[in-house]
Amino acid sequence: MSKKREKLVFENEDEVRLIFDEDKESEILYKVIEDNEEVEDYEKGIYDHDVIIQRLSDSKFFRGSYQLFGQGDSEYELEWNEVFQKTITQVVYE
Q: Residue 4 — φ and ψ, nearest 5°?
């Protein structure tokens, strides 16, 4: 049976940007768990980020993304989907 996934919808990009603003420590509602960067276009300086955040009020995890552009501009996804943490055990024999 699959679990129902919540959608986290932000009003605007500024709301998402606060998650990554280290100067706003008193207003922290989310914690960045993973931020994986992939180069989309090295020459133009475009970088895609796949991010997992944790909402601190209930410890739920959400996946979203954003892009960074060469001149310091950015574009943030406003709708983030809940993801579930999964532990995988690997047995290795030596």
A: -75, 130
pTM of this prediction exceeds 0.85 = no
Question: What is the tally of structural domains in the chain?
Answer: 1
Of the candidates 8, 20, 18, which has an alpha carbon nearest to the alpha carbon of residue 60?
A: 8
Helix (H, G, I), strand (E, B) or coil at 27: helix
Per-residue tokens: 62 = 């959400």
Q: Give tens-digit pLDDT for 64-86.
A: 998 888 777 888 889 999 999 88
- Beta strand segments in 2-45, E: 7-9, 30-41
Is residue 93 included in any domain, yes or no?
no
Task: Assess if residue 94 is contained within a domain.
Answer: no
Range of the domain at 52: 7-83
Would you state the structure tokens that stand for residue 20, as one six-digit string? 């990554």
Q: Is residue 24 situated within a structural domain?
A: yes
The widest CA-to-CA distance across the chain, in whole angstroms, is 52
Among 48, 22, 21, smallest CA distance to 35 is for: 48
